[in-house]
Structure formats: structure tokens, C-alpha cells
Amino acid sequence: MPAFVDPDLIRARFAAALSDMYRAEVPLYADLLDIVGEVNLRTDPAAPERVAIERHGAIRLGTGAELAMMARAFSVLGMVPVGYYDLAVAGVPVHSTAFRPVTEEALAANPFRVFCSLLRIELIEDAALRDEITAILARRAIFTPEALDLIATAERDGGLDEGAAQAFVTALLETFRWHSEATVNAETYARLSAQHRLIADIVAFKGPHINHLTPRTLDIDAAQDEMRARGIDAKAVIEGPPPRKIPILLRQTSFKALTEAVRFDGEAGQHTARFGEIEQRGAALTPKGRALYDRLLALGDPAVFEAFPDDLPGLVRDGLIYVRNGAPITYEDFLPVSAAGIFQSNLAGEAPRAYGEASSQAEFEAALGRPTIDPFDLYAALAALP
User: Fold this and answer.
1) How many alpha carbons lie under 13 Å from residue 188 in its C-beta half-sphere?
2) Where in the chain is the domain with CATH 3.10.180.80?
């Protein structure tokens, strides 16, 4: 029997290669890594190694077939779909899941995760444009033939040997690479953008270039201050819960999306989509804690979060967070409102949209080829471990 490379190791190699590629493509991302590294060292010199290597990325897909194949690709990396996020309620015509490792051992080895969105073509009112988008997406292939062959090999054999694992990392990286040559002309791009700029980003290019890559900081307020001190055009407000002694869920900030040169059939143009983000992760909330958080968030005033206990004994007593051996369990997922907000807020000038369609988790999971995993079940299982 061949010696297969552990999926955790393949995932670590891919995450490192993706970070190197994005650093070369978006130099400001390198500045974010420097800022996060300095802040984390000041905050906790003895922080676990996983904090330094931790990244999450985000991609946007156009078709159910692309989503199904992406799920198979991520499976080779030991990543499975966790959670369903309906971003249409926040004016973004996509729905999403988070591909990530789920076991304690895999998260410790490398917690790389990807927020993966799928375009909801049915939300586009213009029937002719829907048909045109469908035709455009049908003509593209976002995976290299070598990547497809290696996915099939891993599924057939139960894994990849050393040579195949290295080849797979290289081949899969091409799916996430930036391409400055659009696959549509300027007039088509303008019509796509008029519907929503995320639609243009999804449809008008060769593949789902990584649109942001996010390192983890231990003090997002200090990192935000440092971004501004270095002249980086950071968001005005950190998204997520207000600052707390016991952080909960997820807080994130970013610099505004870059306007980059692209070409449409040889004609010079511009595209705005890619940005850099920083996140700070806190404790995972129980269903009771999440219900309280959502209720307070809906009130729209940070002051109301005083009603959310901010001491460990109170959080545990009220059953608001998951704990194991007296310590909070880290939140490994995303927030629907935050995810949508970070997309919208980085597209300066994009008018809010209203989509009346109901959530469509069943359709998403049919395209995915499997159910998404309930994150609450994962946290409860971790909390039950000895």
C-alpha cells in the first residue's frame, strides 16, 4: 500500500502556498501579516502556534457544478462544509458555507477555512441576463485537468502519495489565482455590475480568484489602530460584537477593496473586489447565547450588549458559551450578517439591494451533494470530550 500524506499536512501546504501567492498579488496583504505578527507578539508572546498560521479565505462560485467539485477538492484537504449562510437577506445574491476541518486534532494541525459562496442566479430579475450568465458560466472550467485527475485519484485510492500531494497543491492553486483578463467584453461587464458588483466578480473572470485572505489577531483594536498609523485605508468600524473582556464569536476589519487594472477583449478597464481582512476569534456561543446575541444585535446599539455577561462564571452559569475543562471553546465559523457586511462595505458606492426570496438551503445542499454540518453539533461534541 502506498504511504498517503495526511490531509492535515496537504491542507497546511495549500494554505501556505495560497498565502504566498496572495502576498505576491496583493502587497497590502503582506503589510497586514506584519501588523498582525507584531500585535500578536505584544499581546501574548506564548500564543499557540495555530494563531500565527491561521488564515481564512473567501471565494465566490457561479454554478452548482463548481460548488460540487470544490467540495470534492476541499475533501482532499480534510475540509468539510459547516453551516449554511443566506446572504440574500443582507442584499448580497449568494448563499454560502464554510469549508473547514472539524476535529480537535485537525484544527490544531491547521485551522485553514474557506468561506465559499454560490451565486443565486434566480435572484436576478432580468430573465435575458440570467440566460446570458448561465451561458457564460457554462463555458468556463475553473479546475485544471491535473487537479480533476488528482481529486479522482484521491477518491479512488483513499488518499494521495507524496508526489501526488505536492502536485495537487500546485494544481489547485491555479483555481484561486487572479486573472486580469476578463472573459467578457466591457459592455457585458457593465451590465453585470449594474445588477450587483459581486455578480460581475463571479461571472466575468476565468475562475474564483481568492477575494480576501484573513490572518487572525489577538487584539483587533490594536491592529486597526496600527493599520491607520501606517496609512492603510481601514474600515471605520470593526464588525461584530463590541470589545469585551471575554471575546465572543468573531470580530473583523479590513482595508477597502482595491481597484485593479483588467482588460476586456483587449480593452483597458478596472475591477474592484479584492481586499485584506483581519479577524479576532472569541468563544463559541450555545444556541441560547446566539439567540441573545442576535436579539441584542437587532437593536442596533452597542450599549445594549451590557446585557450580555462579560465574565467567564456568568457566561458558563447562564449557558451562553461552550466550555471544555473550564475554558471557552473557540468559535471556528462565521456570522451571516458580518459576512454580508464585509462584502458590501468593501464595495464603496454599491447601493443596498432587497431580495425577497426565502432562504434556499435545500437547493444549496442539493448542488453541494451533501448536507452542511450544523456547527452547534460540532461545538457540543467538543464540549463533551474529556
Assistant:
1) 20
2) 7-243+250-281+332-379
**Where are the strands (E) in the chain, listed by range?**
55-61, 80-86, 94-100, 113-119, 212-215, 250-255, 259-264, 267-272, 276-281, 323-324, 327-328
Residue found by looking up cell 481564512 in the block:
56
3-state secondary structure of 254: strand
**Residue found by looking up cell 491547521 in the block:** 110
Kind of pairing between the strands at 55-61 and 212-215: antiparallel
pLDDT digits (tens, 9 = 90+) for 218-253: 999 999 999 999 999 888 889 889 999 999 999 999
> Bigger pLDDT: 365 or 234?
365
- Looking at per-residue pLDDT, the higher value among 257 and 354 belongs to 257
Q: Say which amino acid occupies 49.
A: E
Q: Lowest-confidence range among 13-17, 154-158, 194-198?
A: 194-198
> What CATH number matches the domain at 7-243+250-281+332-379, 3.20.20.70, 3.10.180.80, 3.40.50.2000, 3.30.1490.20?
3.10.180.80
Does this model's pTM top 0.85? My answer is yes
